[in-house]
């Protein structure tokens, strides 16, 4: 299966693609960063690269480190952008009642020690974007207050995504079925996170 993906999964290219996708999907949530991370981890489990050599496949530890680092850098970029956006960002959010309500609830949660919500939001569809922008725009916390939770979220998401691809390939074989099951598991985690985020803070 992954022999046809050799040019992408070999060498440093896969790391660059994963890093760029994870970094940018905080601004473009439609980017399939999670799918790319799972595919790279599945290729690592498959043990085949461009020429079928073991040393050309992605390294699992490197994938986790790169995905987590790119996630944190993207979060911080969105956080700082929201801080500097000021009135313009508020006007953009005001156009959507749903986004405005979400922004306000996230701000209140963070203001009352709701840091774990940052980790939960990392798994929800577009939750990372709303959390990073909302935290930067509505709270009086400094970057160093947001950073530890963003780092925890990035590591948790990277470990989960890479683990799905890697162990899915070992259990089901390095094929499209394993990748599909892993992607479904990622989406299921996202749906569960989105459900929990919609619940009242007291219940959560």
> How large is the share of residues in beta strands?
under 5%
Number of strands: 0
Structural class: mainly alpha
Global morphology: elongated
Helix segment count?
A: 9
Order of helices and strands: HHHHHHHHH
Rg over CA atoms, rounded to whole Å, is 18 Å
What do the pLDDT scores average to? Answer: 78
- Main beta-sheet strand count, sense and barrel state: none
Ranges with pLDDT <50 over ≥5 residues? 1-7, 48-55
Give the terminus-to-terminus CA distance. 42 Å
Bin the helical content. over 70%
Organism: Streptomyces albidoflavus
Pfam families: VTT_dom (PF09335)
Keywords: Cell membrane, Membrane, Transmembrane, Transmembrane helix
Protein name: Membrane protein
The gist of it:
The chain is built from 9 helices and no strands. It has helices at residues 6-9, 13-24, 33-46, 60-94, 97-111, 116-123, 127-138, 143-172, 176-198.
How does this model look, in words?
Pfam families: VTT_dom. Belongs to the DedA family. This protein has 204 residues and is an all-alpha fold. The N terminus is likely disordered.
